[in-house]
Amino acid sequence: MKRLLSYLLRGITIGITTGFLISLTFAFIYQSKNYAPSAPTFMSHFSSSTSATAVSALLWALIGCVFAISSLAFEVDRWSITKQTIVHFLITYVGFTPLAILCGWFPLNFFWLSFFSLIFVIVYFIIWLTSMTTARHEVRAFNAKLHD
């Protein structure tokens, strides 16, 4: 339980920090005079930017929790790497997608949900491939040291 709480707190911290830094980056890119934590469609649901920022921080924290909890799939030693990856993918996709919609990152219709899903799968695959390649190199290096 203590370990799960540690994961959640780390996820909340990383989620809020990442969300804020990304929104701040977009504010600079679009040369906004006033900070807005998300897209205009999201902002239109709030009476003040303070309220929108508070809700954004909550959503970013939840996103961080989704990714923190999903990482626990890779700690179940009795599962194959394939099962760990599938469980991780499903938790992140099912948990992250509704939060992305609530954040106003894309409208809820078939086209945008399909487009989001395609991008999610591509990004997930790139990260997975990079992680697997790195792990493979580390295992080979470790095995080489054992045989020397």
TrEMBL record:
Pfam families in the cross-refs: DUF3021 (PF11457)
TM annotation in the entry: 7-30, 50-74, 86-107, 113-130
Superkingdom in the source lineage: Bacteria
InterPro entries attached to this UniProt entry: DUF3021
Keyword entries, A-Z: Membrane, Transmembrane, Transmembrane helix
Protein name (Swiss-Prot/TrEMBL): DUF3021 family protein
Lineage: Bacteria, Bacillati, Bacillota, Bacilli, Lactobacillales
